[in-house]
Amino acid sequence: MSTSEAVFRIAPTLQKYGWGKIGNDSRVAQLAAGADLPNFVLDETTPYAELWMGTHVTSPSGVVGSRLNLPKTLAANPHLIGSRVSDKFPTSNGNLPFLFKVLSINKALSIQIHPDKKTAEKLHAAQPTVYTDDNHKPEMAIALTDFRGLCGFSPIPEIKAYLTSVPEFRSLVSNEIAQNFLSAHGKNVGVFCAFMLNYVKLKPGQAIFLGAGEPHAYVSGDIMECMANSDNVIRAGLTPKPKDLPNLLSGLTYKPAPWSNHMVKPSTSPGSATITLRSSYSGFHLPIHGPSIAIVTEGSGSISWDNDAKSLELKPGNVAFIAADVPVAFRTSANLTVY
């Protein structure tokens, strides 16, 4: 891969967490099969949870045809990120300000929140092996399939109704009874969050946004997720992963509201898009003053740039990096869908 190219294919990285969908039932696994992953062989007994596209230090993407990974490639070619982004974010090490993911969820993730920037810096300084970066992690999730999750504190009247009608939930306000419950049923009481958090149902194409301190737990479905470049998660329950209750309790927003408050209301933007092209159509993507990452989820086609002088073929799982200030055109041969 020539470092002078404005568009090039990158290889995402694969995360096999226990909550992921199994084998080829996982959209992550389906996309990984076409994502230029080195030595990838699908195992029908393995959970495939996440596909990462970006420069995070824990799992940076590769560059297809190059010995350099994506952050090293960008550090050597800062024009690919562009001055508008570099003036605002620390990019000298090839660091992108965002992280793009695909998630395939078979069972509930941890009850969790993400820290704000100030808290993330403190957590990373104190526990760098747990909180692996110093960044905040606001995130947006867009449903690829029917999605279910818990998101934000429910309105107060709903929580009061559960306290009245669910004895086990009501008993948590008594330390003595709560201790008896823990002795009988184990110490993971994260299940009771279902009585305090909004139950969210999304259809494909619908989206939610979660800011710092918002409690949530994804339950099922396949989603695209875009966030600040961070992997900082403060957990409370539902999975065996380490919990950090003091920091979670201090970081919660405690703002009850209906889940519709978290819905993303689409607006026209030249910089972000889901592109769906039917057979023999093409779509022009205007240049933006920053880098982009695009993944093909359906169909086939191509992406071209430099006035159509250069192009890459596209199929499901292919991921392309697009440099700042570069206009591109997508063309379809079979119902191409690109995020």
How would you characterize this protein structure?
Residues 177-186 have low confidence and may be disordered. The chain has 8 helices and 20 strands. The protein is 17% helix and 32% strand. With 339 residues, the protein is of the alpha+beta class. Strands 1, 6, 15, 16, 17, 18, 19 and 20 form an 8-stranded antiparallel beta sheet that branches. Strands 2, 5, 7, 9, 10, 11, 12 and 13 form an 8-stranded antiparallel beta sheet that branches. Strands 3-4 form a two-stranded antiparallel ribbon.
In short:
By secondary structure, the protein is of the alpha+beta class. The protein has helices spanning 27-32, 70-76, 83-86, 117-126, 156-165, 167-170, 175-185, 245-251; strands spanning 7-11, 13-15, 21-22, 47-48, 50-53, 62-63, 98-105, 111-113, 139-143, 147-153, 197-202, 207-210, 216-228, 234-237, 275-277, 282-285, 292-305, 310-314, 319-322, 328-338.
List the helices and strands and how they pair.
Layout: E1 7-11, E2 13-15, E3 21-22, H1 27-32, E4 47-48, E5 50-53, E6 62-63, H2 70-76, H3 83-86, E7 98-105, E8 111-113, H4 117-126, E9 139-143, E10 147-153, H5 156-165, H6 167-170, H7 175-185, E11 197-202, E12 207-210, E13 216-228, E14 234-237, H8 245-251, E15 275-277, E16 282-285, E17 292-305, E18 310-314, E19 319-322, E20 328-338
Antiparallel strand pairs: 1-6, 1-19, 2-5, 3-4, 5-7, 7-13, 8-14, 9-12, 9-13, 10-11, 10-13, 15-20, 16-20, 17-18, 17-19, 17-20
